[in-house]
Amino acid sequence: MTPIELKLVKELGYERIECACGMAVLPKDPTPEITDTVKKLAIEEGAKFSIIDTSVHPEVIKKYNIRELPAVIIGKNTYMIEEKILRSAIRKEKA
Q1: Who contacts 4 (Cβ-Cβ below 8 Å, separation ≥6)?
Q2: How confident is the model at residue 1 (pLDDT cuts 50, 70, 90)?
Q3: Measured in Å, how far apart are the chain's first and last C-alpha atoms?
Q4: Could you tell me which residues come within 8 angstroms of residue 79 by beta carbon, excluding any fewer than 6 positions away?
Q5: Distance CA 50, CA 52 (A)
Q6: Which distant-in-sequence residues (6+ apart) come within 8 Å of 80 by Cβ?
Q7: Sign of the C-alpha dihedral, residues 67, 57, 59, 93?
Q8: Whole-angstrom Cα distance, residue 60 to residue 85?
Q9: Comparing C-alpha atoms, which of 16, 38, 43, 35 is closest to residue 27?
Q10: What are 7-60's pLDDT values in tens digits?
């Protein structure tokens, strides 16, 4: 049985910083509290967690018919970030 995966879909920001090698570009999460909430939920439910950055992968929005960001993909379905709904969806996928 393959583990369930929660894919958080949102747009990350980027920050340019000067470093010893010149200029580095680092991802910057504009809403870390949302990321932490979904990640914590995934861990509690025994699921994998990943983030899909829509600025790098804009095709995900069309592929999953996402109307509002951020969103969570579980299996082939998309959900709003609401703890009860996500827990229910995870348990449904496990069954």
Answers
A1: 45, 46, 47, 48, 74, 75, 90, 93, 94
A2: low
A3: 11
A4: 71, 72, 73, 85, 86, 89
A5: 7
A6: 68, 71, 72
A7: negative
A8: 21
A9: 16
A10: 999 999 888 889 888 888 888 899 999 999 999 999 999 999 999 999 999 999
Alpha carbons 22 and 54: distance in angstroms, whole number: 27
Residue that has been written with the tokens 């949102």 in this structure: 10
What was the pLDDT predicted at 53? Answer: 95
CA 71 to CA 79: how far, in whole Å? 6
Could you tell me the two tokens for 42? 């995934």
The residue type found at 24 is: A
What dihedral do alpha carbons 74, 77, 78, 83 form, nearest 10°? -50
Query: 60: Cβ–Cβ under 8 A, 6 or more apart, which residues?
Result: 9, 52, 54, 66, 73
